[in-house]
């Protein structure tokens, strides 16, 4: 046990990585799911243990050296309250969605490909966890590519249901690769300026570079600025921040249901985490917001994302696409929080990361049940399902209330913090945009809910039963979680605030 | 944990949860026992002055707290719910009763909220519950009307929320001990005319509350949605939403002069539209606006007598308005007809319904020996008293003189539309040929109980005066209410307006028309704005975007795939547009990074 505890940061990546390989080779027929389920269950245990360890460590930070190579030379994993919390979110959602995936995936993907699917599934989770845990900027790129490459394939596997999954995947592949390249190029520029790839080390050396900027002979000014611009654009694309969201709607819509749920609740969240890390740890908030005004660009993008995403969501007739566009809007809330650069703002971001992962994940799962029972997710196919699938559709509706931000749902808590942060910064117009976004969310949620409960089901429609238990329980778990954290938000708010304070270095 | 630590609303929520599953006789027991239990629980809390603080979202919220006006509102909400339940018991709709419990629970929760956050939460629960009650009406227009109702109240809820967030943040920066407290907004009353950043939060809170109270220009939703509930649904609807708003205005904005003007407008508005209306329940819905107008005037005056008058009037109003709507609901239940022009002559076969309807009509007209007489006149008295006080102080009090005259005129108008018009056209007038049977026993019992309340409160108003916010003032008023002059003045007013009704009868016979109102804005104006303003802008933007992308070779947004392939894999696949966007974003970042620091 001693050994496990010591190497926990490495194990949380190595276990799913190795198991992914094993599953892809021997996980034929039903075995693949059992391997994935066991692995994700182990991952969530490790993630929670890490979070507990971090919160109990004086200084609230653990550094793990791979192969005992000291920091700037070897690869270091750094765990602090922020990424420990994200690890728990990712591992938790992954485990719950894996539980759900068994029946859903079996109905959407041919049996002969199941072992590939679960292998890639684990690779994708590995990549997401790795991006979160690593303290090395280049290692982050590698893990980003691991998660992205497996995601492209997972999306493409939706082709059995709809051929458009293929074009969605290739579109995502081209754009995702460009985004990753931008990020890589950004790192290369910083490497040129600092000669280091370790995030903490770059941040420290950068201080010497900033110090020269006010003087007559600024060092590496253009290099560093170009590097950051490239990284910012690359990461914006990864987290689908408006206007770089082009890949997201189709990828989410045509991917298998379980994949959509996993991506919607973890992939963009990890992207947001990476962005937070780059801005607050790598660049430093003074440099990023006061010298370079990244916040201006971010706030404009966020506000546009909230309005545009929610508005286009309202116009969709495929519910899965509607949720996808709503995700684009919700990403705007997350980025707006940390773009404000205050503790409250960052807290709002982290807490919305978590709450939205639960809410949107649960909604995609509920929609997966519709796909499982009806065969598609067109709006008119949901007509009158409120009576046929009472629990699933109840969960969907509760999730929708969360998107609007109705009190006693998690969405209310995040919006409360976000609006407070906007007002604290004196940005009344941003608070207004957040609330207009909620109103549009009300419209698009209502549009679906109205069809679910008041739509008339076709008279000749086949009889239908409620979702199988293995699909219903995960759906209710996620939505139930979003309601629980809406009522008792002390745990989530405490962790988010601890994380925000840590990242901002205790400054108010 | 004791019962008094929990908001009494939770009893009602529990009952709602039970009712959703229980069938048969047990349903009756729960529906009737829960309001009684809740009333007992509410009074246990009121008696010991319990106050509970629980952590929520890092704040200390206070969902159990007794305001001065809590006893009277909590009592009437429980009585109303119990009576309404008795009336509704025989009806078949599964959803309506649980929804009504949630609705009443939200209203009761607001009465016991000691802080703004729990107030808002119960407020929203109330909105959800009432929307479901409207939807379960299953009338022809229920769904569309329910949607409009929900949309407007959701907007109101959002405004209220922004207001609350701003107020709490301002109070925290000002270093207040209890920034969340749901208390009187003194800051607002002292300088309500200044619309500034400082008062923005309070304004938004006020507007949010006014939307629920049906104040202009948001009065139309009452006439629009309440008649679309079921026979029993509109009985519940008439009681809670507007009166909860009155309660919150009383706590937060007593003495705000603006409310006097809004209230006067409502008092007159209700009469005009009720006289023009043909649907019997819509007549009663408009008269809610009129009655709530009286209460708003009382709150706007803000003296102890005026506050007492507004709360006593709310108490009496809930009972007689519910009674009137029960009577109308019984007619609808028995005949299936809603319009005055299709009804008439029902006195032959529905005597209980008729007599109860008449007692309700007398009460709403403040006939002596009914509840309206002992409560509404308190508001009118408060207006003249405050006018006298201001005259003694040498302040301008012309607006109060005008208010007094308008209120007296409105009292006469109430008799015209609700006091005579409703019973006359429904039960007498011509013989419509309808011979419906009397309604089932539970509906009759509910009506008889409420009719008894109307008379008892008129003859023995003492117990009601005892639970008012300022009971000493009320008792003093009670000693003079049956003075000779007061009774004669009221009778004179009523007799003359009664006379005018029958003189003007040929003109008052309504044909099938629709009256135009402010709701035109959201029924017709919003769609028109969308089609004629918003859409063209969006289309122009779309064209501009196309033009930009078409400028770059190969980046055109049109697909160049063969149609057969495009159909299979989708046309929406061009990678070039997003790639171009990425490049432009990089450019934008570089510009921001290089240029913005130079500018600042």
Comma- or semicolon-separated keywords:
heterodimer, A: 508 residues, mainly alpha, two-stranded antiparallel sheet, B: 600 residues, 3 domains, two-stranded antiparallel ribbon, 72% helix, globular
Indicate the structural class of chain A.
mainly alpha
Largest interface, counted with CB-CB under 8 A? A-B, 56 and 43 residues
Q: What is the average per-residue confidence, as pLDDT of chain A, rounded to a whole number?
A: 87
How many DSSP H or I helices of chain B? 24
Low-pLDDT runs of chain A: none
Short description:
The complex is a heterodimer of chains A (508) and B (600). The longest helix of chain A is centred in the last third of the chain and has 32 residues, at 343-374.
Task: Report on this structure.
- The complex is a heterodimer of chains A (508) and B (600).
- Chain A has a domain at 293-508.
- In chain A, strands 1-2 form a two-stranded antiparallel ribbon.
- In chain A, helix 6 (137-156) packs antiparallel against helix 7 and helix 11 (257-283) runs parallel beside helix 14.
- Chain A has helices spanning 2-6, 8-26, 31-56, 81-108, 114-133, 137-156, 164-194, 199-211, 221-238, 248-254, 257-283, 285-291, 294-315, 319-339, 343-374, 385-388, 390-404, 410-424, 428-454, 469-487, 490-503; strands spanning 62-65, 76-79.
- Chain A has 508 residues and is an all-alpha fold.
- Chain B has 3 domains: 1-183 and 216-221 and 228-239, no CATH class; 254-514, no CATH class; 520-599, no CATH class.
- Chain B is built from 24 helices and 2 strands.
- The model of chain B has no long low-confidence stretch (mean pLDDT 83).
- The chains are: A mainly alpha (508), B mainly alpha (600).
- At the A-B interface, helix 7, helix 9, helix 13, helix 18 and helix 19 of A face helix 5, helix 6 and helix 24 of B.
């Amino acid at each position: 046990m001693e050994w496990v505890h010591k190497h926990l940061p490495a194990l949380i990546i190595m276990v799913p990585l190795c198991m992914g390989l094993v599953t892809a080779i021997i996980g034929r027929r039903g075995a693949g799911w059992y391997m994935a389920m066991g692995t994700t269950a182990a991952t969530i245990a490790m993630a929670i243990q890490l979070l507990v360890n971090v919160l109990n460590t004086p200084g609230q930070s653990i550094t793990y050296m791979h192969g005992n190579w000291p920091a700037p030379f070897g690869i270091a994993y750094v765990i602090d309250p922020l990424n420990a919390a994200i690890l728990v979110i990712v591992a938790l959602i992954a485990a719950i969605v894996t539980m759900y995936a068994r029946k859903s995936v079996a109905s959407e993907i041919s049996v002969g490909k199941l072992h590939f699917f679960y292998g890639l599934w684990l690779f994708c989770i590995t990549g997401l966890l790795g991006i979160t845990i690593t303290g090395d900027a280049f290692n982050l790129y590698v893990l980003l590519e691991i998660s992205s490459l497996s995601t492209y394939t997972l999306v493409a596997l939706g082709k059995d249901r709809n051929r458009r999954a293929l074009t969605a995947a290739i579109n995502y592949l081209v754009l995702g690769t460009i985004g990753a390249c931008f990020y890589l190029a950004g790192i290369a520029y910083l490497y040129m300026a600092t000669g280091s790839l370790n995030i903490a080390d770059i941040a420290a050396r950068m201080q010497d570079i900033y110090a020269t900027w006010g003087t007559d002979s600024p060092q590496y000014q253009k290099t560093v600025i170009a590097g950051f611009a490239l990284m910012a654009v690359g990461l914006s694309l990864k987290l689908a921040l408006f206007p770089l969201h082009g890949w997201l709607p189709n990828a989410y819509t045509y991917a298998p249901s379980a994949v959509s749920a996993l991506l919607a609740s973890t992939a963009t969240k990890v992207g947001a985490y990476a962005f937070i890390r780059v801005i607050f740890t790598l660049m430093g908030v003074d440099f990023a917001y006061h010298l370079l005004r990244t916040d201006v660009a971010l706030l404009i993008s966020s506000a546009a994302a909230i309005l545009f995403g929610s508005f286009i969501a309202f116009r969709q007739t495929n519910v899965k696409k509607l949720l996808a566009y709503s995700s684009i809007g919700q990403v705007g809330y997350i980025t707006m929080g940390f773009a404000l650069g205050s503790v409250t703002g960052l807290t709002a971001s982290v807490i919305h990361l978590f709450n939205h992962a639960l809410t949107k994940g649960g909604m995609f799962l509920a929609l997966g049940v519709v796909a499982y029972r009806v065969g598609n997710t067109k709006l008119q196919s949901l007509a009158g399902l409120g009576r046929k699938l009472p629990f699933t559709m109840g969960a969907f509706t509760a999730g929708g209330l969360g998107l609007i931000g109705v009190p006693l749902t998690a969405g209310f808590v995040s919006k409360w913090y976000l609006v407070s942060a906007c007002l604290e910064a004196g940005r009344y117009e941003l608070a207004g945009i957040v609330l207009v976004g909620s109103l549009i969310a009300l419209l698009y949620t209502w549009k679906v809910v109205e069809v679910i409960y008041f739509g008339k089901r076709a008279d000749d429609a086949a009889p239908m039963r409620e979702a199988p238990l293995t699909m219903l329980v995960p759906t209710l778990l996620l939505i139930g979680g979003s309601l629980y954290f809406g009522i008792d938000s002390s745990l989530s708010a405490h962790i988010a605030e601890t994380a925000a304070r840590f990242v901002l270095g205790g400054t108010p | 944990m004791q019962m008094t630590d929990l908001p009494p609303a939770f009893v009602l929520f529990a009952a709602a949860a039970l009712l959703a599953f229980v069938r048969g006789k047990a349903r009756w027991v729960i529906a009737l026992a829960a309001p009684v239990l809740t009333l007992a629980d509410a009074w246990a809390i009121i008696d010991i002055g319990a106050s509970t603080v629980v952590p929520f979202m890092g704040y200390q919220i206070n969902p159990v707290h007794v305001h001065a006006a809590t006893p009277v509102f909590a009592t009437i909400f429980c009585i109303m719910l119990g009576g309404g339940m008795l009336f509704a018991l025989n009806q078949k709709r599964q959803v309506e009763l649980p929804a009504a419990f949630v609705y009443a629970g939200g209203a009761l929760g607001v009465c016991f909220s000691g802080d703004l956050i729990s107030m808002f939460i119960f407020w929203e629960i109330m909105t959800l519950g009432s929307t479901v009650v409207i939807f379960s009406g299953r009338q022809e227009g229920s769904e569309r009307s329910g949607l409009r109702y929900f949309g407007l109240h959701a907007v109101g809820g959002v405004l209220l929320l922004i207001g609350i967030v701003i107020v709490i943040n301002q109070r925290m920066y000002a270093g207040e001990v209890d920034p969340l407290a749901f208390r009187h907004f003194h800051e607002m009353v002292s300088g309500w005319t200044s619309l500034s950043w400082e008062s923005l939060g309070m304004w938004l809170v006020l507007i949010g509350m006014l939307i629920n109270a049906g104040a202009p220009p948001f009065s139309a939703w009452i006439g629009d949605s309440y008649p679309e509930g079921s026979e029993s649904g509109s009985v519940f609807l008439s009681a809670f939403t507007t009166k909860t708003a009155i309660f919150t205005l009383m706590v937060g904005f007593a003495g705000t002069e603006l409310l006097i003007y809004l209230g006067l407008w409502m008092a007159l508005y209700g009469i005009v539209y009720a006289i023009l209306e043909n649907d019997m329940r819509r007549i009663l819905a408009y008269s809610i606006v009129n009655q709530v107008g009286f209460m708003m005037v009382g709150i706007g005056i803000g003296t102890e007598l005026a506050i007492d008058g507004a709360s006593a009037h709310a108490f009496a109003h809930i009972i007689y308005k519910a009674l009137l709507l029960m009577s109308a609901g019984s007619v609808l239940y028995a005949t299936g007809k809603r319009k005055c022009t299709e009804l008439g002559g029902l006195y032959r076969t529905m005597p209980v319904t008729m007599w109860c309807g008449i007692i309700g009509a007398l009460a709403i007209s403040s006939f002596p020996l009914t509840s309206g007489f002992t409560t509404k006149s308190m508001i009118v008295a408060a207006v003249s008293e405050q006018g006298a006080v201001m005259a003694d102080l040498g302040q301008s009090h012309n607006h109060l003189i005008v208010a007094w005259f308008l209120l007296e005129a409105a009292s006469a108008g109430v008799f015209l539309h609700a006091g005579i018009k409703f019973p006359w056209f429904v039960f007498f007038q011509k013989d419509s040929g309808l011979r419906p049977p009397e309604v089932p026993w539970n509906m009759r019992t509910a009506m008889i109980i409420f009719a008894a309340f109307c008379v008892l409160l008129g003859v023995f108003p003492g117990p009601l005066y005892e639970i008012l916010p300022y009971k000493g003032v009320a008792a003093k008023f009670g000693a003079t209410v049956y003075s000779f002059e007061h009774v004669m003045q009221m009778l004179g007013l009523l007799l003359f307006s009664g006379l005018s009704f029958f003189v003007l009868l040929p003109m008052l016979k309504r044909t099938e028309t629709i009256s135009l109102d402010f709701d035109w804005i959201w029924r017709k104006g919003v769609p028109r704005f969308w089609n004629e303003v918003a859409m063209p802008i969006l289309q122009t933007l779309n064209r501009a975007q196309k033009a930009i992308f078409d400028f770059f070779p190969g980046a055109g947004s049109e697909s160049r795939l063969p149609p057969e392939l495009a159909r299979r894999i989708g046309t929406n696949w061009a990678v070039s547009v997003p790639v171009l966007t990425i490049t432009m974003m990089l450019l934008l970042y570089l510009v921001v990074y290089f240029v913005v620091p130079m500018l600042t």
